[in-house]
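Supplementary Text 2. Reproducibility record for the structural model of the 249-residue chain.

All settings were left at their defaults, and a single model was retained for analysis rather than an ensemble. We include the record here because the model underlies the residue-level annotations in Supplementary Table 4.
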Amino acid sequence: MTDLQQALLADARSRYGEIQPCAGRRSLEECFADYGKHGFYLYFNDKTGSTHVVRAAADSNTSLPRPLLDQELQKRREESRERSLRWRLAHPEKTKEVNRQWRLRHPEYKEIERQRRLRNLDKARESRKKWREAHPEKEKERVKKWRRDHRELCKKQAHERRKILHQKVIDVYGGKCAICGESEYNRLTLDHANGDGGEFRRPFKEKNRTMSGSNFYYWLRKKSFPKNLGLRVLCISCNQREWWKRKSA
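Retained model, structure tokens:
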């Protein structure tokens, strides 16, 4: 490594601390670029994954390198970005495969990206929200594909959500059986104390909506758990016993 290259490395480390190769290069030695009259450059990533560049003038034989980009390099970078964008748009499958291979070679990048998103969480959420509003059909297809690819995970998460909601509903309407005092969540359910559950469900049935089980619990949560529906908590045994009493009466 020449004295000029060592000077560029020292300058980059003094400004940015720990630095890493960028753009798929395996070592910092591969990150130097000689642009002749435009100068000598070192490209690198800092510890957050952001790309930077330091420059030494073309007539510099060592001394201290001068920082960052001149107009000519900025123009070249913009042209390079445009060419790269055109190629990616023309070859989406190859682009996807190149990105996948790059991520396999750089597993640490996943954690760097996660940390970057955490530092800009509000900005990332706002950006995703704008994208979803601008591309509703693509978002719908993306969600459908994700659920199809992660079917078991979706089932597990849905089960956990229903379990938590069931416990919340039971706690709001009493927390234990109104007759025998049973408090085991798995054995508790809601009962219409006046026996008018069928009448309550009939308007929903006419609109082809199911109003039982978790659907009923979601509806209660949406309505802020109303207290005027005559609901009470019963265990399964007491609920069956009350049903038989009403039926035989």
